[in-house]
């Protein structure tokens, strides 16, 4: 097989090292560019048969028409709205993405937040740092025998369910699509949302952000929750109406909240954006500083890090390499469009 030039845009040094190792012996000659693929960096793609990009590369019809000899474009993201797929089809360029990479990663962080609240880990840490070792107000509760309501049973939601069963918890689930086989195998029960809210000691959100899910947790919905239940959100901030959550916390309807995401994070399309050097992190800082939830002792907030494990980020690169290796063998494993 003749060597194939592959140009990877928007790459960090560690990604260069990982991908160079992953593609060794495949016949791919890799080249790495720090900047995104844009009209002003188009010359960097000259002679390439394969291109790999992230979401800051804007591959519109005009740019794609100028990609001479490119046969595959791989985006190192789940979303692909930065690529004109119709233009790629017209140009006979195959496309691929990373459809999933952090299911167990986000699920584990979900339970980190649950345990921080159920055992008052955050309160205890702050107290002991100040030299106060008193136990007053730190009594927690067991997860065993409690009921968790999982709203959204996609890949992440199912991982949460598996972990919950490991803790000896009962599980209620709500989703517009129901898989009776999985509910039987994993021993959980699908119910309507009002029944889930009324019967759950912990409600964990695992839904995408779209018009139908915006503020799914609002005043009316909070009023249906079991009094004193915990709310966990490691999905998207727009699922929760912030003011309604504050009122529910004030009224004791919600006993505590674990939030890895906050309303107003619409600028985050892909989690890996947060790791980019040029990402405007001051916007997140301002969001956190101004948010009235930040200083409540029954709320644990983390700065959108549920996705951020070494293994999850390596899975993005491994899937990218897998797409390239598959293409060279004649079949892209994760095609889009």
Helix and strand content put the structural class at: alpha/beta
Total helical elements:
12
Main sheet: which strands, in order across? 8-7-6-9-10-11-12
Which CATH class of the largest domain is shown? Alpha Beta
- Rg, alpha carbons: 23 Å
Shape: elongated
CATH architecture of the largest domain: 3-Layer(aba) Sandwich
CATH fold assignment of the largest domain: Rossmann fold
Helix content: 25-40%
Main beta-sheet strand count, sense and barrel state:
7 strands, parallel
Instruction: Tell me the span between the first and last alpha carbons.
Output: 27 Å
The SSE order reads EHEEHEHEHHEHEHEHEHEHEHEH
For the record, what is the CATH homologous superfamily label of the largest domain?
NAD(P)-binding Rossmann-like Domain
Which band does the percent of strand residues land in? 15-25%
Question: What is this entry, summarized?
Answer:
This protein is of the alpha/beta class and 337 residues long. It is 34% helix and 16% strand.
Write up this protein.
The chain folds into two domains: 4-101 and 311-329, NAD(P)-binding Rossmann-like Domain (Rossmann fold), CATH 3.40.50; 103-308, 3-Layer(aba) Sandwich (Rossmann fold). It has twelve helices and twelve strands. It has helices at residues 13-22, 61-64, 85-90, 103-118, 121-129, 155-166, 180-186, 193-199, 219-222, 242-250, 281-290, 310-329; strands at residues 4-9, 28-33, 50-53, 72-75, 94-96, 147-151, 170-174, 189-190, 202-205, 229-233, 254-259, 299-301. The strands form two sheets. The protein has a seven-stranded parallel sheet with strand order 8-7-6-9-10-11-12, with helices on both faces. Helix 1 (13-22) packs across helix 12 and helix 4 (103-118) crosses helix 6. The protein is elongated, with a radius of gyration of 23 Å. The relative contact order is 0.13. The mean pLDDT is 90.
